[in-house]
Amino acid sequence: MSFWSSAWDVIKSVGGSVAKVVKKTYEVLTNDKTVEVYDKIEKIIEKTRSPAPIYETYGNTSSPDFFGALTNSNIDKKLDEHNKKLNQYQEESVQSRKLTVLQMELSRLRGSAELIDRSIKNVKIHASSLSVHYQNIRNINGLIEDVNTLRYGLKAVISTINHNSKNLGGEENGFKKIEGVDINKKQGAISQVAAFDAFDRTRELLKDEVFELSLLSTKHLKDVERLKIHAANVGGDIGRQVIDCIDRDVIPVFKNAESAGLLLKSEVSRLPVAARDDAGMLKFDNGKIMIESDSLG
Prior knowledge:
By secondary structure, this protein is mainly α. Strands 1, 2, 3 and 4 form a 4-stranded antiparallel sheet that branches. It has helices spanning 7-13, 15-28, 37-48, 66-69, 75-167, 192-234, 236-268, and strands at residues 2-4, 273-274, 284-285, 288-293. It has a domain at 2-49 and 96-139 and 200-293. It contains 7 helices and 4 strands.
């Protein structure tokens, strides 16, 4: 547990870490449309999938007279042809089911990729907001320093004028004291604490989103391996093309997202974490902000 006398003491000690987090976020999260890699696989399936077979139909729906109609034909040959067509239909039906399973798994992965894309965008938003809150605290600190300087100067001027007025005879000689001017500090008029509270809450949102991105990407890569198994079950040219596309285009995209999540987890963990009570309010000790952990140890 650490103690800091003001919000600015906390922020100025980690300004470099904040800038690094924001910079790294935009360096490593370059692709927030990962779902588009699955468009290629869908095109492969649609391009190579054969049209539904057309089977013979008979105009006469009455029961056929095999023995009368085939008196001059080879019944065994006709039955063999029929069995071949039946086997072909069964094979095509099994293949169609395998393709359907592949497409269902592909659809599920698209939904998962959309969650990853949304997480990437949220990480960028929170990182940008963190930078804004950091600059806001810097500006407030500068404003407070300027106001305090003016306040102290104004106090000195008023004190000097009133002292001289008294020595020169006061109101009897036309010298009036300056009165009724309130230049004391107003509680909450400009709050570094409120600004730091917003900064810390944004840091927490960023941390949670980075952890979520890392978990989603890791799980997605495991699901991609299952997609490869379904493609292998389909077999043939379509299975080979899908597996090649997964290895070449899909896996690298989500490995990058996973690596980015792990890297940002490390960077965000370096930021100070404010101590809070059960109600979520900042904790203080003798007027100092309490910090759970910070990068300076």
